[in-house]
# Entry
Amino acid sequence: MFGLPADWSLDVPERYFTLESYDGGVARWCPGCGDFAVLSAVQRICRDEQIPPEKLAMISGIGCSSRFPHYMHAYGFHGLHGRALPVACGVKSRRPDLDVWVATGDGDCCSIGAAHWLHAARYNMDMVVMIFDNSIYGLTKKQTSPTTPMGVGTNTHPDGAYLPPLDVARTTLGFPNVSFVARTVDWNPPHLAATLEAAYHHKGTSFVHILQRCPTYTPNVFDELRQNSDLTLLLTHPDGVRADDAVRRMYENQREHDPSDLAAAHALADRSEKLAIGLLYRNPAAPRLDTFSVRGLDATREQKLAALERELDRFAV
Ligand SMILES: Cc1ncc(C[n+]2csc(CCOP(=O)(O)OP(=O)(O)O)c2C)c(N)n1
Ligand code: SF4
# Structure
C-alpha cells in the first residue's frame, strides 16, 4: 500500500491521554482566582507525561485551593484542615506506584498544618507539594494567615496583621532533610508549568511555593510585583527550572543560581528586595523514608501472619 513495506505497522499506544482525561468537572473558584492556572498546569503535565489517571493521587486539606482533587479525574482525598501531608505520606507508604500531588493553602500548610509541613520535609517521600499562597484564609472569608503582609486589613485584624509574615519558601529551606524548594507565581503560566514539571521529576518531596491571586479577598497584594517586573529575580541554571526565551524576556533581573548551594538559596529566598522565582534548592541525595516504608509490601498473607505472631509472642507473659 502506497509503497510501504508489507510488515509496516503504526505503533499506536494502547491508551493515549488528552487534557480531557484529567478533567474532573467545572471548577468552582471565583473568576480570576489563581487556582485555575495551577489546575491547567497540572493537567498539562499529566498529559505531557502520559500519567494514567488511575496512577494519580491528589491529596488536599481544607480551603479553596484544597478543592483541587475534585477537579482532577484521578484518585483524590479532600481531607481535614491541615492534614493533607500526613494523608499523602500514608498513601505514598503503601502505594508507592501512585504519583502523589498535594494541594495545600498557606493556612492549611503553614498554620494549622505546620507540624506536618516540617515532618513531611524531613520524611522526603516522593511527591509534589503545591503550597497555594494567597496571603489569606480564602474559604472562610478573609482571616489573617501566617503569610498576610502587615498593613493588609482582614476580618480578624481590620487594621492589618500585628506581626511580619513568614515566607513559605524561606521557611521550608530551614527544615531538616529538605530536598527541593522552588518558587513561582500563578500569573506566569510557562514558569509555573516549568516549575511544577521540575518538581514532578525530582525524586523526593518537592515543595513549590506558588504566589496565588485571590481577587476576592486579597486583590492588591501582588499588584506591585505584577506591574513592575524589576521586583522579580529570575533564577536560571542548567539544573534549575527551565526558563525559555519567552520567560527570560519578561524579566530584566536574572541570576544563575546553583540549586545545590543551600546558603545561597537562603539568601535568595529573602523577599525584602526582590522576589526570586525558580529553583532555590535541590538535594537529590537526601534520604527518603518511602524507600524504607515499602518494606514488606510484597509479603504474602502467611508471611504477614507469621510476623504478627512473632511480635505478639514477644509480649507473652
Ligand atoms: C480543624 C479546622 N479548623 C478550622 C477550619 C476552618 N477553615 C477551613 S479552611 C480554613 C483556612 C483556609 O485557608 P487556606 O488554607 O490558606 O486556603 P484558601 O482557602 O486560602 O485556599 C479554615 C480556617 C476547619 N475546617 N477545620
Ligand atoms: S476566595 Fe480567593 S482563593 Fe477562594 S476561590 Fe475565590 S479568589 Fe480563589
Summary: The chain has one domain: 19-287. Strands lie at 56-60, 75-78, 99-105, 127-133, 180-185, 205-211, 232-236, 254-256, 275-282.
